[in-house]
Design goal:
- The chain is 29% helix and 31% strand.
- By secondary structure, it is an alpha/beta fold.
- The chain has two domains: 96 residues, Double Stranded RNA Binding Domain, CATH 3.30.160; 43 residues, SHC Adaptor Protein (2-Layer Sandwich), CATH 3.30.505.50.
- A four-stranded mixed beta sheet has the order 1-2-3-4, covered by helices on one side. A four-stranded mixed beta sheet has the order 5-6-7-8.
- Helix 3 links the parallel strand 5 and strand 6.
- Helix 1 runs parallel beside helix 2.
- The protein is elongated and about 75 Å long.
C-alpha cells in the first residue's frame, strides 16, 4: 500500500503520519490489487480536517471529516472509510449468492434463455397532469406513474429521447 500524507496549515508530524499509516494498513485486507492512499490533514481556524482518498484497482473510496482534535478527526474519517468498505464487501457477497439463475417461469421455444424479471414496488402519488409534468422535469427521471386527481385513473408520463413528453392514459377493458 502506497500512502502519501499532506499537511496543510499544519506542521508536519511523524506521530500523525504514523497514526494515519497504522489506521490505513488495517484496510489492506479488504482491498485487492495495487492500493494508493492519499491523506490530507489540515487546520482551518480551530477545526482539524482529515480527508482520505483510496484508489484500489480503479475503485475510489473517499472520506472527509472534521473535529476539534486531529486524532478524533482521523478516527472519524477512518470509521467512514471502514463503513464504505464493509458495504462494498457485503455487496460482493450478495452478488455471489445471486449467481444462481432464477428458475424460468415458462421455457422459450427457441432455446434462448428466459429474461430475468425484477420486481419493484412503488408508491403511486395522486397528482394533476401539470404537477406530474413539473415533477418529471425537476426530478430528472424518465418515467412517472401517477393517479390523475381529476379522473382517478392511473396515468403514465414519460420523456422520449427527443425530450418531448408523452402522457399515457390506459383504458382498462
Amino acid at each position: 500500500m502506497q500512502i502519501s500524507v499532506t499537511f496543510r496549515q499544519l506542521a508536519p508530524s511523524d506521530a500523525l503520519k504514523n497514526y494515519v499509516t497504522d489506521r490505513l494498513m488495517k484496510f489492506k485486507r479488504y482491498l485487492d490489487g495495487p492500493v494508493e492512499a492519499h491523506v490530507v490533514l489540515g487546520l482551518e481556524k480551530f477545526r482539524h480536517l482529515a480527508d482520505v482518498t483510496i484508489n484500489s484497482n480503479g475503485r475510489i473510496i473517499k472520506g472527509k471529516d472534521e473535529n476539534a482534535d486531529m486524532y478524533a478527526a482521523i478516527d472519524l474519517v477512518m470509521d467512514k472509510i471502514d463503513q464504505q468498505l464493509k458495504k462494498f464487501r457485503d455487496k460482493q457477497r450478495d452478488k455471489g449468492d445471486r449467481s444462481r439463475p432464477a428458475a424460468p417461469v415458462e421455457a422459450p421455444e427457441e432455446g434462448a434463455p428466459a429474461p430475468q424479471i425484477r420486481r419493484r414496488r412503488a408508491e403511486v402519488p395522486s397528482l394533476r397532469v401539470n404537477d406530474a409534468v413539473e415533477m418529471l422535469q425537476q426530478g430528472g427521471h424518465e418515467l412517472l406513474i401517477f393517479s390523475d386527481v381529476n379522473t382517478g385513473a392511473l396515468s403514465v408520463l414519460y420523456r422520449r429521447q427527443d425530450g418531448s413528453l408523452v402522457l399515457v392514459e390506459p383504458e382498462l377493458g
